[in-house]
Amino acid sequence: MITVSLCLIVKNEEDTIGRCLSSVADLVDEIIIVDTGSDDKTKPIVRKFTRNIFDFKWIDDFAAARNHAFSLAHKDYILWLDADDVLKEEDRKKFAALKQSLDPSVDSVTMNYHLAFDAFGNVTSTLRRNRLVRRERNFKWIGAIHEYLEVWGNIQHSDIAVTHSSIHHDSDRNIRIYEKRLSRGEEFSPRDLYYFANECMDHRMYEGAIEYYEKFLATGKGWVEDNVSSCGKLADCYNQLNNPSKELEASLRSFRYDSPRAEYCCRLGYYFLHREQIQTAIFWYKLATELKPPNVQMGFQNAACSTWLPHLQLCVCYDRAGEHLLAYQHNEKARHFRPTDASVLQNKAYLESVLGITEGGGGNERIE
């Protein structure tokens, strides 16, 4: 059986660190905590789990801090988490099983990262990260902000999920670091251009975000998933700036970088639906229901756009077009994914009234 070192970098994480460590402490053989300047109760909480707490002077560089944490590990493999991450019970069991069975020739194990959930507990945003890496490979973190772990070799994809459960964060931290780097005249990499654009967008600096998304795309060196994502984010920026023609252009631009994605079909459906171009909206929403999710191991995915959302929107479209049976059928497909959704249930009651459907009357009340 392999041994595992857990490595975290922390600062003022008193609200979350105990929850994180409680979810994984009994599954690992060593816990390494690198503290970058906490002045709250983080350290006393951590001491309940480990004495391995090391101070690291913060230099506006997440990769440097993570690489330092990795350098302090001693076990066969290194598992990394953030303080607001947890392993839920099902994933704890899967991790324990993985630890028992993992072939020691595996260099890295990827895990799902569940980032957001809807009101029904369904995952709405997920990606994959290299989570468990063989220590002797000496893999390094790269990037001062939005850092990534550069790995290669024998990579195994697991079905284990790490759940992100944030309570609060310093929303200005990253953009401050980027602005410092710009003020020093530093030349940004394509990755930096992309993530700085994201920070600008998050801070509602839409013109600046557009500028840096365009600079990123102009390099021609971006990862395909970031290229596609940039198009959606450009569309969002133009929407906020009330520029619908540029919004439409940005959504369509995503097709330059990959085959159509359900997310962009839903975007286009929404665009045309709100301009009462119902048949065009129906075309794009139907296409969203027909597309398979992209075979992407590491990029962000939004399951809603290929499951319930286009069916719910098709219900709206067909109702406006007077095709109530089709509206009902698509609402039922949406209900399959969200059986207690108030909007879906309201649509169901309304359409059953229009169609004269009653419970037990002819079998049309359940169309999967």
UniProtKB/TrEMBL annotation:
InterPro entries according to UniProt: Glyco_trans_2-like, Nucleotide-diphossugar_trans, TPR-like_helical_dom_sf, TPR_rpt
Matching Gene3D superfamilies: Spore Coat Polysaccharide Biosynthesis Protein SpsA, Chain A (3.90.550.10), Tetratricopeptide repeat domain (1.25.40.10)
One Pfam family from the record: Glycos_transf_2
Record-annotated Glycosyltransferase 2-like domain positions: 5-107
Domain of life of the native organism: Bacteria
PANTHER family reported in the protein's UniProt record: GLYCOSYLTRANSFERASE, POLY-BETA-1,6-N-ACETYL-D-GLUCOSAMINE SYNTHASE
This protein's name: Glycosyltransferase involved in cell wall biosynthesis
Organism taxonomic ancestry: Bacteria, Bacillati, Bacillota, Bacilli, Bacillales
